[in-house]
Every structure is written in C-alpha cells, then in structure tokens.
Amino acid sequence: xxxxxxxxxxxxxxxxxxxxxxxxxxxxxxxxxxxxxxxxxxxxxxxxxxxxxxxxxxxxxxxxxxxxxxxxxxxxxxxxxxxxxxxxxxxxxxxxxxxxxxxxxxxxxxxxxxxxxxxxxxxxxxxxxxxxxxxxx
Length: 137
Hints:
Layout: E1 2-3, E2 6-10, E3 16-17, E4 22-31, E5 37-46, H1 48-56, E6 60-71, E7 75-76, E8 82-83, E9 89-100, H2 127-131
Parallel strand pairs: 5-9
Antiparallel strand pairs: 1-6, 2-4, 2-6, 3-4, 4-5, 6-9, 7-8
C-alpha cells in the first residue's frame, strides 16, 4: 500500500546502515479529536534517494516522506518455508524537508540529562516541538 506524503519523526538510536540500504524506525503523529496527538511507531527501510540522504547524515530529527509504501512481504526462513514477518515495514524511497537533531549525542542518552529519554535512547519531542505551528501534522 502506497502512503501519502507526510511528516514523521526518525529514531536515530535504531538506525543501521546495511551498505545498499538502511533500517530504522519512525514515529508518525496523528491528531485526535480532542486536539492531542497519538504517535504510532513503524519499522522502516531507506532505499534509493532516501538512503542516499540518510547515509550523508543519519542524525535526523524529522522528515517528509515523499514516496513510501507499507509491506509485509514473506521471506524464506531457516526451514525453507515462506514466513510472514510479525510487523509491517515502511519502505521509504524518497524524503524531503529534513530537520536534524541539534545535539551532539546523536540521540543517545549520555546520562547528563535524562529528561525526554526512554530506554531505547530516543529523544522524545519537547512540548514546544509538538505544538509548533509550522509543522503541518
């Protein structure tokens, strides 16, 4: 299923460069009826133009997915049988409007400031970032 263009947050702690593509995970915000936001997390793979842009500087905070689709394609397991993964994966082909983290720790907890960190090392967006009117989601 192809996805419409949308803005997402990138979890830098889960980034893994595989040589011709990169794996990671993203958070997608969705406004609720009461005005709050609910975040959904997805595994993702960067290919093509998206991989070239992420490989240059993986210290990304957010970006706009220009071309992406969701897949749950089967793979052949160790027993030689088709197996479906437990979760869908977003294949990201092109991205634009990239914003970068402005800290030096690349999204990892350095124990100097634990405010906004979870056990995965992802820096949660601040309330100012969530309420920022220039982000169209």
